[in-house]
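Narrative summary of target 7.
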Amino acid sequence: MKYYLYILTSLKDTWHYTGHASDVPKRVQAHNSGKVKSTKSWRPFKLIYTEEFNTRSDAFRREMFLKSPRGAEEKDY
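Modeled conformation, tokenized:
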């Protein structure tokens, strides 16, 4: 099974969300329908970036890196 890092941007303001999932379209739908408590206030969202990984742990490590101060510098959006 493949896993994906994804980045969403809020269409309400300039807020971004970074996460990981095995089914990105389903996860984006969950964010947009208000089923994800941490993003409910910023919906609707648009998917702006994905990266594919062979394992969940690799996708999670990449997510944590991008959420770190050093990884935040790497983001280009």
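The mean pLDDT is 94.
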